[in-house]
Amino acid sequence: MTYRVRAVPVAHGGEGGILVSFEDVTDLERAGQMRRDFVANVSHELKTPLTALLGFIETLRGAARNDAAARDRFLAIMEREAERMNRLVSDLLSLSRVESSARQRPRDPVALDDLAQSTLNALRTLAEGEGVTLELERQGDGGVTVPGDADQLQQVLTNLVENAIKYGRDGGRVTVRVGRKARELAFRGPAVELVVEDYGEGFDPVHIPRLTERFYRVDTHRSRAVGGTGLGLAIAKHIVNRHRGRFRIESEPGKGARFTVVLPASE
Ligand code: ADP
Question: Which ranges carry the Histidine kinase domain (predicted)?
């Protein structure tokens, strides 16, 4: 706990005194620390590809100037680094958009099963590149509509399925299930459950509480190698919170991971 203590001289009934006030600033302090950590992380994440780019520009100007093969190789690396920065900036913009919209509750009717279908269609080329099969299981007799923001919910699905493809088993499969639950205690009413499951490397459950923190990665090297920014789950969690939903993560190392989103259903 952190307190801010103030002492103010006061006059009372002809006598002087001092009024001492204690203000609990623990949350403020924590928010300030989080902001400082975030800025430090963003700077570090941007500086790494920038340093690589500057290094390669210098090499291209000097030693590799007349070596066509080296030039092509270096340009390919520079393109990868620039793409990494581009992804990071896009994710930062998404995060800030979600945060600034957090106060209003989204209310458009969104058919989650149709949204899952179109998201999987959009990701099929990426999956095929990794030899991964995408499966959609629609449970129940439809009626899986939630009040929400279609673009943001699509972003949740995209982030979860992209992760399942990236961290799943090469040549494996990713299953997406969408179904209605008659009653969810937390909402005192019907709910829609969305599950994204893969059968890849998974992670030790000790990581679960921190997995949705910005820039938290189980294996930084692996995340970078697959083009991760470390922000995908933080964005997804924010969006789910904005929809008053619940986010659950389960994994067994070596067997895969399961991400479940439960949202209040439209009446
Ligand atoms: P990244 O861009 O690094 O993938 P995310 O926020 O999407 O960032 O995920 C955070 C971390 O959670 C990842 O770096 C990875 O270690 C772990 N992770 C996420 N999804 C999966 C998954 N399906 N299987 C195994 N690990 C995962």
Answer: 41-267
The contacts of residue 194 (CB under 8 Å, 6+ apart) are 112, 116, 156, 157, 176, 177, 178, 260, 261, 262, 263
3-state secondary structure 150-172: HHHHHHHHHHHHHHHHHHCCCCC
Identity of the residue numbered 173? R
**What are the DSSP E strand ranges found in 82-241?**
108-111, 133-138, 145-148, 173-184, 189-198
CB contact at 8 A, 203 and 166: no
pLDDT in tens, 45-54: 999 999 999 9
Q: Cβ(95)–Cβ(235) under 8 Å? A: yes
Is the full-model pTM beyond 0.90? no
Q: Which of 223, 251, 255 best tests ligand 1's pocket when mutated (most atoms within 8 Å of CB)?
A: 223
What is the Å distance from ligand 1's center to 257 Cα? 10
Q: Say yes or no to pLDDT of 140 above 70.
A: no
The predicted pLDDT at position 27 comes to 87
Phi, psi at 210, each rounded to 5°: -105, -5
Q: What is the pLDDT of residues 148-183, one digit of tens each?
A: 999 999 999 999 999 999 999 888 999 999 999 877
At residue 201, the 3 state secondary structure works out as coil
Residue pointed to by tokens 């458009």: 108
pLDDT tens, residue by residue, 109-123: 999 999 999 999 999
- pLDDT band at 141, cuts 50/70/90? low
Cα(61) to centroid of ligand 1, in Å? 37
Q: In whole angstroms, what separates CA 160 from the centre of its chain? A: 9
* Residue to probe by mutation, ligand 1, list 91, 130, 211, most atoms within 8 Å of CB: 211
